[in-house]
Amino acid sequence: MTAQITLSIAVRFGINFIHWMVLAHLPVLLRSYGLTDLELATVIGLFSLSSMALMLPMGVFSDYFSPRRTLLFGALLQAWYFMSLPAIKTFWSFLPIVFIGGLGTASLLVVSESLYMKLFCQEKRGRRVAIYQLSTYLGYGLGPLAGGILLQNHSYLLFPMAAAGACLVLILGFFLKDSEPIVFSFKEYGNDILRPTPLLLMACIFVMGTHFGVEQTSFSLFMNQNLGLSSKEIGLVFAGLGLWMAAAVPVIGALHDKKKSVFIFLLSGLAVSGIFQVATAWTTDFSSLLTIRLLHTMGDAVALLELSVLVALLFPSRRLGGNSGLLYAIRTLATFSAAIISGGFNKEWGYGASFLGNGIFVILFALASALFIWSSRKRMQAVGWVK
């Protein structure tokens, strides 16, 4: 089991490393190609939308067919996407390529996580989810750093290196353990979801997804245009954030295994994330930005860990593929919507406005959710706040 956990973590790291190596710098690259803010937001949003379109069916498909084969298919699509990007320079030609890239990314993200949850997270959930997320955050941090260094020194290597990384994920994926297929049933999936606690979880995931949409569309541009940071400096910011979250999440996971009020941690994490999302709009240099974003991502790390733990707690392991696919689809719908809205905000009021508006939205949601739960003893019992 230890070898398979290590392999699963390595695959997850590779997926996030190559994904963020390109995505963190894609808005700046698109801007250099002459795309407008609205066109840029549409391209990034379409990437999210195409991911969303396949997340639910790919998750369900992996439940009753083969998660490992589904993951390998996603790696092939992503490798093709990275190899195709260098030849594209116009808005309309980006759209079909980005759509295919979103499909590959959906397959990789949903299936890699649901397979890990199925096989290894039925016990010691907090620690095992934390270890898995550590690899995610390392990929999130080190991928953009590698991308920034490549862009500054050998920009022509960015997409070929990403394609090579996707091929490595494909090779490692061949050695992953598969899970047993199930008999498909819409009714059972519906029974899993249509309960108060999973519905609240879905609302939290939607709100969390909106801030990803803002960041994917606006964060790199905010650093580049408002603060004047270079590609390498942008990569260093992502690296600092990723390493910070990777260091924090094992501690949070150990704390979770001692404290069972998961929704308290989740809503607290969302509130902290929202507060420092607002503060991001007022940063003026590299140091202030890094400080504020470190505080912001501490809230993210708490919220994302608790979201993953809740998925493992609330849904049967044999149907985690389909249910995880639905949750990822909800998150990605929010990411797409927020990306499009951010494009409008950026055009009218500048890149800081997106962070200000989204942060206020997240804070209000966290407060409203806490009040909604506290107003009913039955709801407090449902989320584990009272016995």
Topology:
Elements: H1 2-23, H2 26-32, H3 37-64, H4 67-84, H5 91-120, H6 125-153, H7 158-173, H8 186-193, H9 196-226, H10 231-258, H11 262-280, H12 286-314, H13 320-349, H14 351-374, H15 377-382
Helix pairs in contact: 1-5, 1-6, 1-7, 2-3, 3-4, 3-5, 3-13, 4-5, 4-7, 5-13, 6-10, 6-12, 9-12, 9-13, 9-14, 10-12, 11-12, 11-14, 13-14
Keywords:
0% strand; 84% helix; single chain; Growth Hormone, Chain: A; mainly alpha; 387 residues
Your description of this structure?
By secondary structure, the protein is mainly alpha-helical. The chain has one domain: Up-down Bundle (Growth Hormone, Chain: A). Helix 1 runs antiparallel to helix 7 and helix 3 packs antiparallel against helix 13.
Low-confidence stretches: none
Secondary structural class = mainly alpha
CATH topology: Growth Hormone, Chain: A
- Number of separate strands: 0
End-to-end span in angstroms? 35 Å
Question: Please, how many domains?
Answer: 1
The CATH architecture category equals Up-down Bundle
Largest beta-sheet characterization: none
State the share of residues found in helices, binned by percent.
Answer: over 70%
Instruction: Please identify the oligomeric state.
Output: single chain
Q: What is the string of SSEs from the N terminus onward?
A: HHHHHHHHHHHHHHH
What do we call the CATH homologous superfamily?
A: MFS general substrate transporter like domains
Q: Beta fraction of the residues?
A: under 5%
